[in-house]
Amino acid sequence: MFFKMKLRKRFYISWVGLRGAVPIVFATYPLLAGIDKAHMIFNIVFFISVTSILIQGTTLPS
């Protein structure tokens, strides 16, 4: 609406956009705070983020 882009380009950008960086950064906060089981939380978030990126990456045209 605010940008003069075609709808197809907007969908592409929303699908391909930055994925995983913010959750991984947020998952480091419990590690820095020394919270119990923080390593498990970080590992789960990291695995889900990487899996999501790989799945979405396979759907992109080359």
Protein architecture, described:
This protein has 62 residues and is mainly alpha-helical. It has a domain of 34 residues. 71% of the residues lie in helices and 0% in strands. The protein has 3 helices and no strands. Helix 2 packs antiparallel against helix 3. It is elongated, with a radius of gyration of 16 Å. One of its GO terms (biological process) is proton transmembrane transport. It is found in: Cell membrane. Keywords: Antiport, Ion transport, Membrane, Transmembrane, Transmembrane helix, Transport.
Structure summary:
It contains three helices and no strands. It has 62 residues and is mainly alpha-helical. The protein has a domain at 29-62.
pLDDT < 50 stretches: none
Percent helix: over 70%
Please report the number of helical segments.
Answer: 3
Strand content: under 5%
Mean pLDDT: 86
Largest sheet: none
User: How many distinct beta strands?
Assistant: 0
Organism: Mariniflexile fucanivorans
Subcellular location: Cell membrane
Membrane topology: Multi-pass membrane protein
Keywords: Antiport, Ion transport, Membrane, Transmembrane, Transmembrane helix, Transport
